[in-house]
Every structure is written in structure tokens, then in C-alpha cells.
Batch of 2 targets.
Target 1
Amino acid sequence: MKQIPTPSIERLSVLSSTLSRLAAEGVEKTSSADLEKRTGFSACTIRKDISALGGAGTDTAGYRSKQLQAVIEKELGLETPRNCCIVGLGRMGGSILSYGGFADSGIVIKAGFDSSINVIELLRSPVPLYPAYEITEKVRELGIELAILTVPAEAALKSAQRLVDGGVRGILNFAPINLVLGSDVVVRNLFVVDELRVISALLAGR
Amino acid sequence: MKQIPTPSIERLSVLSSTLSRLAAEGVEKTSSADLEKRTGFSACTIRKDISALGGAGTDTAGYRSKQLQAVIEKELGLETPRNCCIVGLGRMGGSILSYGGFADSGIVIKAGFDSSINVIELLRSPVPLYPAYEITEKVRELGIELAILTVPAEAALKSAQRLVDGGVRGILNFAPINLVLGSDVVVRNLFVVDELRVISALLAGR
DNA sequence: TAATGTGAATCGTTTCACAGCG
DNA sequence: CGCTGTGAAACGATTCACATTA
């Protein structure tokens, strides 16, 4: 398989979500120009991204939303669902746990973990919850490949290590600390404060 | 002022947070190699970023953490605090509202907004809460420049418009929809599901 | 010696411009 | 004719390699 560059993958992922919404609204056809308006990516870049997937099935009057979405998901390997867990069930973790937006996303939340037995027993959850010391075991048992880390900074590295030991290969990290793990683990950081500071700096630079 | 490229700003923002943590731990000196270990950015890129700030004060035995942090914050315009608000006080918004990590960040949470009067009256909050229809007015009154959007997708565009009308110039958007606003407004999207899908795609491409 | 700072080269992405095709 | 797909050009960022400095 040809390697798709990361920025392209990021855009295609957004495009796929956009197309999914379009399809839900009954919009059957779209074009690179239309998608530019909706996503902010330039039409040119969009065409490049799509064509890089290797002849994305299209006709000459634009793209058919549903079909294009299918092609993107196939090429990005998003067709096969991946199991995911949430580590750290404070307010942030809890809010993601009860979030309804995972339907049809290819991401399946399978379990939650927290170091507090209290939390595990009291929290209402659509999926089973386990104590943190069982992370490695349960992750392996349930075939979980992805994790969302919403623990305090001090606990992040240890939790991450347990996850990786259990076979997790991708982590979405909210804890404000850069996880230094093996290069075979994909980590993406969502630091809310840092993001705000980036916006602030962008504003300062006009 | 020389324009600092966006990727560089993103890294510098992370570096600044890292340095702040180092300073708190009492580590007074560091180096590009040390920062590489801590952040994952290459030492070379780190030096380039720092030197691009225009002769960042250093001596030949590395950087002094505190001083380097000060230089970065100054150059990124992070010294003057910016006022921020949170729109949408569901679980996600609420968790950010009660998050303690904004201290010394240069980001000051000034207000919260929600369309439900119930939420506004019942939620315990360290800052005043207002109904959504007062967004434009209050934002202007309080001199708020930044906003965190944690409303449902349907409400996102309307909320964003109200914010911009009140003078907000930067938005951190959690609602899974691409906000198309004027080009003078900086928008950064944090789509949790999309991020997981990106990780999934990166894993699929080995 | 051990570190930064920086021109030069490399690498990768985005944009341009147009051929091709229904 | 409108829109995609794509080679080529332009741009921007990262890495390299080394001069420099205490």
C-alpha cells in the first residue's frame, strides 16, 4: 500500500465525517469546490488527497457523497471497527464515556478504567468499568487497540505503560504531558490549555 | 514582527508548558537534546524554533529554563493574559470549567454560557454563568477574546456567530462540525472521534 | 569540550495549470 | 462546458553539517 502522508490522512478523516453528515442530509452529490466551502481545505488539496487514494471512483460531475465516503474509509482502513477504552473517569473521561457520537465511527468503546473503586462502582456507564490495575489484563482480553487517556498528569505515563503492555497501539492523550513511548505506539495529544495558547499566539502574530 | 510559522508556534507552545513544569521541578538548566527527550521534537528543530525567535538569550551550556520560557512567552505574545469563556456547559464544558490547569497559562476563564437556565442556576462554578442569548453582550462587556465551544453540533454555528459578534477572535471548537467563519477568526477544532479515526488510519498504514 | 546558531541542502506538501473525459 | 486527475513548479519546513563561542 502506498503511504498516505499524515496531513492528508487528517484531512481525509474530516472529509469522511463531513460526507457522512452530507449523506445524512440527503445530499447525494458534491464537488471539490463544495467541499472546500464546507471544510475550509482548498479544492485543489482535496482533489489531490482523493486522487492519491488511487483513482477514487468518481464521474465528471463531481463526487457521489456516499461512494466517496466509502472509498475514503476503505483506504484509511476505517472499515474494520477498532476497540477503544477510556482511562480516567473524572469529568472529562466521564463526558466522553457518555458521549453518543461514536455510532458509525468505526470506534467502539469497550471499557473504562479508573484508579478509584468508588468511581467504578458508582458511575453509570454503558460499558463495563474496571480498576486501573487490571488495565493490561482487560485490554488484552477484550482486544482493545486504542485508548483515551484522561487521567491527571502524574498518572499518565504509568497508565500509558499499562495500556501498551496490554497491546494498545494508539493513544489519544488529554493529560498535559508528552508521553514518550515506543515508536510503534501512535500518540496524539489534545492539550486544551496549549491549544488555547496557540490560538492566542496566532492572534498576537496578526 | 517576523511571522513565526504555525507548526513552530505549536511546538513553542508545548515547549513553554514543558519548561514551566521543569521550572516547577527545580530544573534550572536544560538543552535542546534534553528537550528532545521530553517533547519528542528533534533537537535540531527545537534550536531552529528558538533561534527564530531572534537571538533567544542563551549561553553555551544550554538554556536556562526559566529565562527561555520567558522569551518564548514574550515572543508568542502570551505574556498578556487573554480572557476566555466556555459556551455549552454539558459534561464536557463543565469539566473544563472546573479544570484547574489554567493557572499561569495566560488564559483566564471569565464566564460560562448555556442555553438552559436550569444549568446556569444549578451548576457550581468559579465564574459567573449566563444564558446563551446574552453571549454577544457579555463577551463584549467582559473583553473576552477567546472561547471554548462545547455545544451540540446543531448549536455550534449560531453560538460561534454570537461570539464573533461580541468580538471573539479565537475559538477552540469541540463540536463535530467545521465552522466556516470570517478569515479574521482563528478556529481550532478538537474532534475527539476524528482524532481517534486518524490514529486508526495511521495504525492501518503501519 | 559541549553546547548553540545558522546557511545550505533535503525533503515533503501545496498550488498551479492544463490535459482528459463524460 | 464543468469538473476531476495529475505532472510540474513553488513553497515551506526539517535536517544536515559546521562555524562559533565560552
Target 2
Amino acid sequence: MTASAEHAEAAAAGKVPSKGELAAERIVEAAYRLFLEQGYHGTSMRQIAERAGLTLGGIYNHFASKEAIWVAVFMAKHPYHELVPAIKAVDAASIPDFIRQAAIGVVEILGRHDDLLNLMFIELVEFRGKHTPELYATLLPDVLAIGEIFAGKSGRLRAIPRPILVRSFAGLFFSYYITDILLPPEVRAMMGRDALHTFVDIYLHGIMADPVPADD
Amino acid sequence: MTASAEHAEAAAAGKVPSKGELAAERIVEAAYRLFLEQGYHGTSMRQIAERAGLTLGGIYNHFASKEAIWVAVFMAKHPYHELVPAIKAVDAASIPDFIRQAAIGVVEILGRHDDLLNLMFIELVEFRGKHTPELYATLLPDVLAIGEIFAGKSGRLRAIPRPILVRSFAGLFFSYYITDILLPPEVRAMMGRDALHTFVDIYLHGIMADPVPADD
DNA sequence: CCTACCGATCGGTAGG
DNA sequence: CCTACCGATCGGTAGG
């Protein structure tokens, strides 16, 4: 979400953001982009200050430390905030159609910037995942909701425990995304969009008990 | 590979490592562990020197810069060096058995330390993947070899382009591994080893044209 | 390979 | 929210 979008949201909720809130927003936005580009330790407070349009000292009126900025960025900008609503918004009657459309939507979002998952990797590598538990409380209801979506669609699933089904559904995207960013550009171009289609096709044959209806 | 293993290998190849080569090895080994623990920018040359058992200045007799150490570590310690031989060593007659045993072997290796893929993530986040192309030349023959393995086993595959098949095979492991390390410990314990079994089962149903024979 | 040092930059703070 | 500063640490080097 952009700073202006958050602003608009705050306004819609009846809250006029104070000047201080706007500055904090600018700091988070600036830090977010710098962290994606350079990682956490590779980004300095001075760079954040400059991009946010204030001086180094000014930052400390809004955040107690560099790590506090990281926590704010990690919570507010986690790709999950963009991906889960996109999945929930999919309108499809059958499980295969749901998964196909969800896959297209997710990959489209991931394709907009190839560093969307970097926040996750930074947290893993530079913080050894120590802030991740904080996120789970927020995340859990959505994960359960995605499990429910499967139950509401037509099409018979093979006997797969619900939690593992949801996990494998998430895994489908990791599988595609990670192998995509690791590919040399020429090879990636060669595979084209067929790869996603085939990945989804393999997954559908993997989870459905009924024959999988052809796409397109 | 440990420093002593590399030493033994060099000796077996008839090369007696010089004192300087041993020091360079110790530097790579020390940097490797520190990078996994703290990332690249989070690790200082002084920490590397201390753990390698020499002083800061001494490092520069072996490496021109900190980044040169990164390149040496990235090339020598990439998890691919451990994973590909393990996959090639699998002895199975059918494709399903091959994939099941490969999955068990890979996950066993990944399980030994949960930071095995951190090298990859650091390269992605802190260097924006700029050294990755150097690795492809080394990697390509092995990738093709894995494609050939499928051709030599019994069992009919669905019509899946060979490159995408290999990519999806790699993706299976990313899918399992990433969703594993992101899981809260309690949930991970709950899913247990079933999850891997189910992931492999889904994948096999996804790629095989014949009915998939039951495991165990 | 060590000692001793360089200038630059780091995260953070005092005081206004 | 800025100016001016703190001590600590950074990657790297000269000279031996």
C-alpha cells in the first residue's frame, strides 16, 4: 500500500492523520523501499531520513530505534496484506477454477515487482525470524478462511488433511516464484507463461479426486 | 563440506594444500558460518578474522575485499553442492520411488540445519542476485543430468515439458522447505512428517499418468 | 601475517 | 523537528 493509500484509508475511517502520523508514514515508506533494495544492515538511518524528507535526528521523534522501524515496515508491508485479499476476491464455482484464478492473480502481483518476498527473506536472514511470531496472530484467521474456501467449491478433493492442503496451496506459489527468480533470464523467457499453467495443472491433478477439466 | 574434508579431498587429489591455502579455507569456513548467522552486512571483517584465527590485516593476504570473500563462500558452500549429489545417488527403479527417496534425502539434509538456503537468500537480498549468473555455468550440466534420470526410470509421466518437469521437481522442495520454516513451531510439530509424505503424494499424482502405487 | 593506523560512516542523543 | 555532536565500529591499508 502506498502512503497516500494509507492516508485515504485513514480518512475513510474518519481519522484525519496528524502531521506526525504522516511523517511516520513517510519514514515507513522510505525504509520499506530501501530495505527491499539493500537489506536491513545495508540501509542506514541517514538514507531513510533523506528519502523520507527529514533529518536523522527527526526520525527519533517517531521511532525509538532502527529496529523499531523494521518492525513497523515488516508488519505494515508484508506481502501477505496484498496476496490474501487477492485470493479471497477470486470468484469461481469449482476448486480447479478457484486455484487457476488465484494462481494468475498471485503471480500477477508477484510479477509487478520481483522483490515482494524480500521482506520475508530479510526477516529470516538478518533477524533469524525473531519478529515472525508477532505476525501469526494477525495471519491465522485468514489462513483458516482460505481453508474454508475450498470447502465451499464444487469438485471432489482427494483425502488430504485440511492444514496440509492449505500449506500445499501456499507452497504452490513459493515453488513457482522461487524457481522463477533463480532462473537465468534466457531460460525464464524460454519457459514463458507455460510454466505457471503447467505448475497449476500438476497441482490440480495432485489434489483432485475427479478428473481435472481442461482449462481455456 | 568442512575445512578438513576439503583438505582431505585436496590430499586425495595429490595436492598438498599450502599453508596459505589452509588459511584461505579457514577464512571461507569462518565467513560462511557468520554469514548464515548474521547476513553479509551484519558480519564484520574483524569477526571473520577472529573466528578464522588471524588478524584483520592478515585476511587481505588471501582476499582482496569483503565481497571477494562472499563470492568464494557463495561458490564453495552453495547448498546445491550437497543436494545434487544426494539426488543423483538415489537408487530406485521407478519414478515414484525415485522422487520419494529424493524427497526424504533432501529434507534430511535441509533438516540438519534450517539455514541451508540462507546463502541463496543473502545473495538475493543483499546483492540483488548479481553473482548468481556465475553459478549457472557450473550448475547447468547437473540440471540436465537430473532431467535424464526421469527418462531412465519406469513409470509413465503425463505430458509435461522436460524443463518444466525438472523445475517443478526443484519447486517441490522449495515448496516444502519455505512453508516449513515459516510455520510456528507448534503447528509444525502438529503436521509432523505427514506433511512431506502428503506433499510428495500430491506431486506424484500431479505428474504421473499411471495410477500412483501406494508407499510403504 | 601482525601492528598500528586511516578516513568514513554507523546508530543514537543532547539541547534547543 | 534540526543542528551538532558522541563513541564505536566499519572496510581497508602502510610498513615492516
